[in-house]
Amino acid sequence: MLLVIESTCDETAAALIDERLVVRGSSVATQDALHQRFGGVVPEIASRAHVERILPVIDECLRKAEASLPDVSAVAVANTPGLAGSLLVGVAAAKSLALALGVPLVAINHIHAHVYACRVASREDVFPCVGFVVSGGHSTLFDCASPLDFRVLGGTIDDAAGEAFDKTASLLGLSYPGGPAIEKVARSGDPKAFRFPRTFIHEDRLEFSFSGLKTAVRYAIAPQGSEVVPPPADSQLLADLAASFQQAVIDVLLAKVELALRRTGRDVLCVGGGVAANGAFREQLTVGMRRRGTRLHIAPRELCTDNAVMGAIAWERLRAGLVESLELDVVPGLER
Hints:
Blueprint: E1 2-6, E2 11-17, E3 23-30, H1 32-35, H2 43-64, E4 74-80, H3 84-101, E5 105-109, H4 110-122, E6 129-134, E7 139-146, E8 149-155, H5 161-171, H6 178-186, H7 211-221, H8 235-264, E9 268-272, H9 279-292, E10 295-298, H10 314-319
Parallel strand pairs: 1-4, 4-5, 6-9, 9-10
Antiparallel strand pairs: 1-2, 2-3, 6-7, 7-8
């Protein structure tokens, strides 16, 4: 069985997955409470928390699977992209286990794995497809010819969609993480109350930009030039701002998905990442893809946020003979 380790950002996760992609055990330790007062992930805090949690998480995963280390036939780990300190903890643990057990070591691209979560959940072949990862650090579209052949079509030039949710939630006085907080408040708001910008929405380019949207929300709360931006005190105003912001993000995401599908000619779309857990986005995307006749796979909510189950993509690399030496290093850069 394949043991997968995930520690790219602020979740410490492990999963034990057999060759049929059946998940025998899975464990995730979140760090939301550690980062909440900062309104975002603090890299040093995240890496220290991984050090404390990595072995207990692996142990819990094995216990859930009613397995032990001798049952592990390969160890996989996400080594890119992510926070350098966080990645190092996972890679060090994976290399140590692979050496001690005498089994192959497999490297995983964390962003590609988000797309593969759709393959694991659907229990059917989803390739070739357009892959779309929408998360706190990434808004990236891929042309996926196969599980081992991902070509970047385009991505964000500044804030990722999830990053914009977090920053806007902070402006609105809402809790971290911002995505679930904004979604909850937006349910009672009017998405047409504010006409926020939808950058690049009508342009023939597969790029995203959400920094201007965040700034527009700031100016809707307080006039330009104001040094202090107090969160809205009126609950309906707060809901309208949240709903209008959320709809602006969704409109852009849907437009760029449509463009990517037209350009590639693909008839399958696979979507993953934390923002893909947003109910309004899932609903509108489902309606849009049904209308155009595109087969849609959205990762289940529990596989949208960072987890190790999506690391089942390592089985594809193992079958192709793509294994790593113990000199494997981390590649922190963002594939945005």
